[in-house]
Design brief:
The complex is a heterodimer of chains A (374) and B (537).
Chain A lengths: L1 H25 L6 H25 L8 H17 L5 H25 L4 H19 L5 E2 L8 H4 L7 H29 L6 H25 L4 H19 L1 H11 L1 H6 L4 H27 L1 E2 L7 H11 L11 H20 L4 H22 L2
Antiparallel strand pairs in A: 1-2
Helix pairs in contact in A: 1-14, 2-8, 2-9, 2-12, 2-13, 2-14, 3-4, 3-5, 3-12, 4-5, 4-12, 7-8, 9-10, 10-12, 13-14, 13-15
Chain B lengths: L16 H6 L8 E12 L2 E12 L3 E5 L6 H8 L9 E6 L2 E2 L5 H6 L2 E4 L11 H5 L14 H14 L15 H13 L5 E5 L7 H16 L3 E5 L3 H7 L2 E6 L2 E7 L5 H9 L17 E11 L6 E11 L3 E6 L5 H8 L5 E9 L2 E2 L5 H7 L1 E4 L3 H5 L6 H6 L7 E2 L2 E2 L1 H14 L16 H14 L4 E5 L7 H16 L3 E5 L3 H7 L2 E6 L2 E7 L5 H8 L3 H4 L2
Parallel strand pairs in B: 3-8, 3-9, 6-7, 7-8, 13-20, 13-21, 16-19, 19-20
Antiparallel strand pairs in B: 1-2, 1-4, 4-5, 9-10, 11-12, 11-14, 14-15, 17-18, 21-22
Helix pairs in contact in B: 6-7, 14-15
Classes of the chains: A mainly alpha (374), B alpha/beta (537).
Chain lengths: 374, 537
């Protein structure tokens, strides 16, 4: 188990390095500060949705409606801002609440009517797509009024000042070191196996280097993108939720063995509905970022994003049968998906081959899940 | 079913070579299978150490040993799951070295293995299941359904199994499914039958039918290896018994020349004097009462449990017995909020009527269930011991909504140690543990919720003698601490040995209630069969 898992992690790193090396050689721009900054924004969008997807997949469900939802909820906010002249924060708040309500409704259908999530969310995929086009009446709705920036539009265009980036990086690294040392000491106290001192140091050192490298590189363009901060906050919150709360444990338990979870006194229905409600909020946030990144609500916003999110999960080691997967793994999976898409765009690969490549990567990831999964 | 067969006595194990001389009886059936010096190593563990035994045609050979003694590993080698070359030593089938690389190789060599978990497709008929994967074809390559059912009928008749081949498997009871599985295995012209705990899920009368069929097969020259924790069965049906302990074959004994105490001594390496060490605890006030409970089956809507009345005092073990299908498990599952629709009746806990219906609420009230099927209803198998232990108690282990990992560790470690869970640390995966150890984890999870009333459904099913004793000791400690225990068991000696009082269910109703002095096997069985008047003489 242990050796197999580390091989799996290792294979992910290799895949990432190979993909990046390939694009770096074929297109030198790939590693430019400008492109890496763009890649960061794209990653933030993909990864945010994928982390929400993790919550849904852990108890053994799936959400196929996420992509349509991204379009719809982003579209609702754009229409409120552009056509009804609402302030952006209020418009986004309304769309967020709508997301939570719609997704908790789907969650309720799934647990109370015992309809598989696959069917409910497949219905959602089509219904939300239709609603989306109705809401934006098949046109392009800008997200700002009269060319001024608002909270909505800055989601993917605001960058932290360089100095703030450095301070943030320093804080994160310090927190990481403290957290790691504390948990190591606690584990030692419990008599559990701990990693060697050298390995801990190496891992922390590597993580610190990557964080600072990230800040240095993005600062060479405009600074750390706001979207990366949003991703960081959501990833941290979901990490804490999945690893340090009863709710998180319940997600894994339900995915691992739902009948045993019921008998163990886990409120299975409430937990599943809650996981969908959180997914609704995350779909809304992803919708705002994706729509802002596109510059406007158009009929294609959010297309196939649910599949990228599922692919990111599977690549990152999440089991589609539930019960297995981590936030860190999903971030990695999303990084691989985002790099692939970004690199192909850079190479001006035609859409037909982009589709084929995405499909191939998804299939490959599922195949790996089956081969290495048990 | 009369047949004559020379009684034979043989001991391959060199330690007992003296017995060979003692019981020489020349006419012996030929050896069909011989295991010679089988050694199997896993990284860090030697699962089997130079195991040897032989199996003769027309013999039922019992294989006994505690969990982890190596029985399952031996069967996996024999059935080709661990291929030839992954172990040392040899299996000889009819004198030839067996080189199985897959399950199919072993099947082709005439070995049929019936596992604890049945491998029948519920939605198909008996006939379809028997020929699954080897359906007779018509000239055009389509399945010849007439032939499927005709031959299935002949096979079932041949083995004296009274089941209609057109019946869907889903409608059969556990015992009948087991028989279908055996017929299916024998349809492939197997002459060596391996049964791994075949009666774990069977009621007493089903066991009797199964044993009869095994005897019938024996008279047809089929050799069987019979693995069971139930020594009664082994002694009832086996000709010889091989005992494994810690991966080594300790002894092969002629059933006629030995007794249970000797087998148990070989299994555990020490003598166990008292199989059921029940201590009577001081009885307290009545904590749990059921009045006029009637429950409907949620699928059919028919009344399944009717007019159930009993009460339970603090410090008391109330045993619940009955045949398979009498409603024992359903009763516990219903009381726990996991089965059935209440038609009438009430449940009182500490004098207060319970008005909650979900397991999570019932656990909060102070009741907890340890299910008979620990893999299905008890454990998250691919998680750690610690994850499973604290799962039902997490809400009590939080500070500011986050799990307090120090507190969680303390609690987990308390049960890990006090229940003597056999594993290196709390971080071991539950799937890797033996049945008895898994059962302790399920028990620990239940006990951590600090219940007043504990429902134990077949708590010792499929676990070895040593672990059983530990479970009994835990029951004693619980009642000493003033808890009330509801114990469901199919094994009458266990029920009699561990209960202070026994209620027998018969077809969803109470068939009789017995205190300790009245509870004999005969009385209980009569009540379970619905003959309540007979026993009250």
């Amino acid at each position: 188990m242990q050796s197999r898992r580390s091989f799996r992690d290792f294979s992910l790193v290799i895949a990432l390095v190979v993909i990046c090396a390939f694009f770096a050689i074929v297109s030198p721009q790939f590693l430019s500060a400008r492109n890496l900054s763009l890649l960061t924004t794209e990653l933030s969008i993909t990864a945010t949705l994928a982390i929400g997807m993790l919550l849904v997949i852990l108890p053994g469900n799936i959400d196929l409606s996420a992509g349509s939802g991204v379009g719809l909820l982003g579209g609702i906010a754009s229409v409120l801002v552009f056509e009804h002249k609402w302030p952006a924060p209020l418009a986004m708040g309304i769309a967020l609440v709508a997301g939570v309500l719609i997704w908790s409704f789907m969650g309720n259908l799934i647990v109370r009517q015992k309809i598989p999530a696959f069917i409910i969310t497949l219905g959602g995929l089509l219904i939300f797509k239709g609603l989306f086009w109705l809401v934006i009446h098949n046109s392009t709705i800008p997200i700002v009024q009269g060319g001024q920036a608002n909270l909505y539009s800055v989601l993917t265009t605001f960058y932290l000042p360089p100095i703030v980036g450095y301070v943030l990086a320093a804080l994160i690294v310090t927190a990481l070191i403290f957290a790691k040392l504390r948990s190591r000491k606690a584990r030692q106290g419990y008599g559990f196996a701990v990693e060697d001192r050298e390995l801990v140091f190496l891992k922390l050192f590597l993580a610190a280097q990557l964080i600072f490298l990230f800040v240095v590189v993005t600062n060479k363009f405009h600074g750390v993108p706001l979207s990366a901060v949003i991703l960081g906050l959501i990833a941290f919150a979901i990490y804490v939720l999945t690893t340090h709360t009863p709710f998180g444990r319940y997600l894994y338990a339900i995915g691992g063995n739902e009948e045993a979870a019921v008998i163990s006194g886990i409120p299975v229905e409430k937990v599943v509905v809650a996981s969908f409600s959180i997914m609704g909020a995350i779909v809304a946030i992803t919708g705002f970022m994706q729509t802002a990144y596109s510059g406007a609500s158009t009929t294609t916003v959010g297309d196939l994003m649910e599949l990228d999110a599922i692919a990111a999960c599977v690549i990152g080691g999440v089991s589609l049968r539930g019960g297995r997967g981590t936030v860190l793994g999903v971030l990695f999976g999303a990084l691989i998906m985002a790099s692939l898409l970004n690199g192909m765009t850079l190479l001006a690969v035609s859409p037909e081959f982009k589709f084929i490549a995405r499909g191939a990567v998804l299939s490959l990831a599922v195949w790996m899940d089956v081969r290495l999964g048990r | 079913m009369a047949f004559t067969r020379p009684r034979k006595s043989i001991a391959v194990c060199p330690r007992h070579s003296s017995q060979i001389d003692a019981f020489k009886e020349p006419p012996m059936n030929p050896v069909v299978l011989q295991a010679d010096n089988i050694t199997k190593k896993f990284p860090g563990v030697i699962a089997l150490k130079a195991v040897g035994f032989d199996l003769r045609s027309g013999e039922i050979h019992g294989l006994s040993g505690e969990n982890g003694a190596g029985k399952s590993t031996l069967i996996k080698l024999l059935s080709g799951i661990y291929p030839y070359g992954s172990y040392e030593g040899n299996f000889f089938i009819h004198g030839q070295v067996a080189k199985f690389r897959s399950l199919a190789d072993a099947q082709n060599a005439g070995i049929a293995v019936i596992y604890q978990e049945l491998a029948l497709v519920n939605d198909m008929t008996v006939g379809e299941n028997i020929f699954l994967g080897s359906e007779p074809r018509t000239a055009r390559g389509l399945i010849n359904w007439h032939k499927v059912y005709h031959e299935a009928r002949l096979l079932l008749q041949k083995f004296k199994v009274n089941i209609d081949p057109g019946e869907p498997v889903a409608k059969l009871g556990m015992g009948q499914k087991q028989l279908v599985e055996i017929v299916k295995a024998l349809s492939k012209n197997s002459n060596i039958l391996v049964l791994d705990e075949p009666t774990a899920a069977l009621a007493e009368h089903e066991v009797l039918i199964l044993l009869d069929i095994l005897r019938d097969l024996r008279s047809r020259g089929i050799a069987s290896i019979y693995i069971s924790h139930k020594l009664d069965e082994i002694f009832a049906v086996c000709d010889r018994i091989t005992v494994l302990r810690d991966g080594a074959s300790i002894a092969t004994l002629d059933t006629k020349q030995t007794n249970k105490a000797e087998i148990i001594k070989h299994m555990v390496g020490r003598e166990i004097t008292d199989l059921f060490p029940r201590r009577r605890s001081k009885l307290g006030a009545s904590t749990f009462e059921i009045e006029n409970l009637s429950v409907a089956d949620p699928h059919s809507g028919d009344c399944f449990l009717a007019d159930i009345n009993f009460s339970l005092r603090a410090g008391e073990v109330l045993g619940i017995g009955g045949l398979m299908g009498a409603g024992r498990t359903e009763l516990l599952m219903h009381l726990f909020g996991a089965w059935g629709t209440r038609l009438s009746g009430s449940v009182h806990l500490k004098g207060r009527e319970l008005r909650v219906w979900k397991p999570e609420e019932i656990i909060r009230e102070g009741m907890v269930l340890v299910s008979e099927d620990r893999r299905r209803y008890g454990l998250i198998l691919d998680k750690t011991i610690g994850f499973n232990l604290s799962l039902s108690s997490l809400a009590k282990l939080t500070t500011k909504r986050l799990i307090d990992q120090g507190l969680e560790f303390q609690k987990n470690n308390h049960f890990f140690q006090s229940l003597r869970v056999k594993a290196p640390t709390l971080e071991e995966l539950v799937a890797k543990l033996s049945g008895g150890t898994q059962q302790k984890v399920v028990l620990g999870k239940a006990l951590m919720t600090e219940p007043l009333v504990i429902f134990l459904d077949e708590p010792t099913r499929g676990i070895d003698v040593g672990a059983k004793l530990e479970i009994y000791e835990i029951i004693n400690r619980l009642t000493d601490a003033g808890k009330a225990v509801l114990l469901v068991s199919s094994e009458l000696p266990e029920l009699i040995g561990m209960s202070d009082r026994i209620v027998i269910l018969h077809e969803g109703r109470i068939g009789g209630e017995f205190n300790r002095d009245e509870a004999t096997q005969e009385n209980l069985l009569a009540a379970a069969m619905g003959q309540r008047r007979v026993i009250l003489t």
